[in-house]
Queue: 2 jobs
Job 1
Amino acid sequence: MSGFFRDSAALRTSGDAPESPQMRVPLTAVEPDGPARGGIVVLHESRTFSEPLLDLMRSLAMEGWVTVAPHLFHREPAPSDVEVFGDALFADFDATFDWLIARGIYADCVGVLGFDDAGTAALLVATTRPVGAAVSVAARGIVEPLSEDAPALVDAAPDLKAPWLGLYGEDDPSTPPDQVELLRDATAKSDVAGLVVSYAGLAHRADEPPQVPDGRDDDPGAQAIVDAQRRIFDWFDSHLR
C-alpha cells in the first residue's frame, strides 16, 4: 500500500528501566509526498484497520498531514474481549505524540481523531494534552463515564483547551440525541471553538461508509459521509496552523 509504513513509538517511562518490546507501541503511518504541515493521531478501537479507515488516513496525508495510528490492542493477545480505554490508551497516545514531535512536528500542529470509545479519549486528550485540534466520531460516555478514570464528556467539555469537533448519528443508541444536546451545551462553556454536528440515521462514520447503490450519489447516507469527511478535513485545516 503506497505511502504506508510500520514503525513503533516508545512509551514514556520513569526511572532507568531498560527498554523492551512491551514498552513500545506499534504504529501504522503514512507521510505526505511533500513537506508536512503537521500530524494527525488516529485512534481506532479495532485490531484491524478497515480499507475505509486506511483511505481516510491516505487522504489526510495527501492534504499534508503525517497521519499515524497506534495499534491500541498491542498489550492484549488475540482474541480478547478487553476494552481498550483508560490509562493504556492515553499512554499510547502520548507515545505517538512524542513520535510526531521527534519527526519535527510542532505540538500545536498535532491533531487527534478518534472513533467510538477512542473518540471519547480524543475529547479528553484535548482537555489535558497540548494538541492543536481534536475530532471525535460517535464518542460515548456523554453523561455516564466509560471508566472510573475518565469523566463524563459533559463534565470534561467545559475544560477543553483545543478546538473540538464532535460528529454523531441521531439513531445511535449509545449516544441518544438528548445526551448529544447536553454535550453541545457543555462544549459551549469552554474557552475554545467547539462544534457538535448530528446526522440523520447513522451515516456519519468516515471509517465505515454506508453501502450506496451504484449511481446514487444523491443518497442521503452518501451525502452525510461526504459532509462528515469534509468537516473533519476543514476542522484540522482551520485549527492546525
Job 2
Amino acid sequence: MRIAHFGHSCILVELNGAKVLFDPGTFAHGFEGITGLDAIAVTHQHPDHIDPNRIEELIEANPGARLLSDPQTAQQRSEGWEPVSAGQVLDIGDLQITGGGGRHAVIHPEIPVIDNTVFQLGTATDPAQLVHPGDSLWVPPVPVGVLAIPAVAPWMRIWDTVDYLRAVNPRTAIPIHFGIVDPSAQGIYFGRLTEMAPAGTEFRVIEPEDQAQF
C-alpha cells in the first residue's frame, strides 16, 4: 500500500491495483494534477472535504474514476455520484470498498447531524487494510491495518481521539484533519497520540505532499 497526503483529510491510496483519492477539500493542496484515478471518495459534504471550486476539474481530469460519497453528498452533486451507505460493499478491480458509520460526529446539539460514510479498503478476507473515517469516530468491527485518524477537530477533544485510537487498535495510525491548526501546534496532538497509542500501534506522520509505503 502507498499513501500520499495532500493536506487535511485528503489522501491518495494505492492498494490492490487501484488508486483512490479521498476528500479533496479546501484545505488540501497538490491533488489538482492527479490523473489515472479509479475512484474519488468523499466522506461528507463539508467544504474541507470536498472543494466545490476544484472538484469538477478533478473529475474532468479523471473521466474513468467512480465518484463515491455519503448519500447526502451524492444527492446534492451532479449525476454520476454513487451513494455509499453503511454495510454496502463494492469492488473496483481487486479492491473491495466497504461503507461504515453513517453519521457525522456531533458538533453541537443545535447543529443538524449530516451523513458521513466511513470508507474501508481491502479485500473480502481483509476488508479494512485502510480506514478513512471522515469526521466520525466509528469503530470498524474488523481488524484495521492503517487508520487515517482525525487528529484535530472542533467536534472532539484529544481525550476522544486517544480513546478512538485505542478502540480501533490499528497496526498503524496516520493523522489527518489537522489543516485547521497552525503547523507549530501540530506536535501537541501528534505527541499525545504517539505516547498514548496502544501497544503495537505505530503512529506515523505523512507530511502534506509527501508519501509513504505500508
